[in-house]
Fold:
Amino acid sequence: MAAPLPAPSPLAKHWDLDPDVVFLNHGSFGACPRVVLAEQQLLRKELESEPVRFLHRELEPRLDTARAELAAFVGADAADLAFVPNATTGVNTVLRSLSFAPGDELLVTDHEYNACRNVLDFVAAGSGARVVVVPLPFPIDGPHVVVERVLAAVTARTRLLLIDHVTSPTGLVLPVAELVAALHARGVDTLVDGAHAPGMLPLDLRALGAAYYTGNCHKWLCTPKGSALLHVRADRQEHIRPLVLSHGANSRRTDRSRFQLEFDFPGTHDPTPYLCVPAALRFLAGLLPGGLAEVQRHNHELALAGRQLLLDVLGGPAPAPASMLGSLAAVPLPPDDRPPEGPLGLDPLQQALFAQHRIEVPVMRWPSPRLRLLRISPQVHQSQEQHQYLAAAVATELRRGGRP
Ligand SMILES: Cc1ncc(COP(=O)(O)O)c(C=O)c1O
Structure:
């Protein structure tokens, strides 16, 4: 009989996670707790009981309520916030709304999320603009390295910086406030891809002042999938159009901005993931006595402790200072020449951890196909015991692969 799996945290009772999996990848797609899913189910029942009332008469005030709560949470004016289904859509929306000319330079780092880098490449190819990639080291000494390297790449032709608030492969919190301000002073706008930020980090989008900011609610805010925010500074809203144009485009209404009229109804869809934002905020606020701030601290500490357990097995110093981590932490693995496996191109170690140890955790090939990072992403449903189990499993698999 197989040994029992380590228990998740007692707070895992709020989720319907598979008890036969050690689920250590909250980062990729989030996981929605039961109470929020129940709220979504209620909303869907209401919607289907009278679709016209819900989608035609009531959707706008319902969206306004959800948006007002989200705006207060992320420090924004509700008028500057639109709901979009995910951060990829947020990045597409901005980049495909803007016009660039041959010779323009679009800055991005080599830690950028692949899907969003694809959008930048697409837009650059269509306009003759040039994508300028700023290499950032990993291991990294501190946020000053990011600021120095990005600013050194700015020229008179730079038009935009696309930068992650929290990087995906390396799990770093980047100094976006300093970058936004420094680029603004040079006349350059910033699009912050904050896919991981809402719920993981305290946010004050008004103070940040970025021209564009997008972030998921379905990762660390734990809403149902298909819920994200797009924040566009008031002076940039005129040029930002949704990817799908609908009735808002020629609306004669003057009681709300064209920005809101266009984004609020992109055709018939299921808006319940947006409408669940208040329920998700309530859920997270009530989980621990110190509210969401304590959840964030707790997850950060679990990330630091989990990273240390892995470093104890793998050797080597911490690849980034604790101040650059939120609730993600990545550690370098020994190089591996084995090809990725299966149609999804998964790393053999990721496959083995799942198949042999029932652990769901990502192993990313970055920055080159031989180099790999293992990333943990603690949310309160995870436990230290699960991370101890992961570290032991990594040691077993590296030994099995003929490595020390
Ligand atoms: C930095 C970054 N941007 C964008 C995304 C895409 O998120 P989504 O698939 O929800 O659009 C991710 C997903 O992990 C990410 O880490």
Remarks:
- The domain at 37-282 is CATH 3.40.640.10 (Aspartate Aminotransferase; domain 2).
- The chain is about 40% helix and 15% strand.
- Residues 218 and 225 are 5 Å apart (CA to CA).
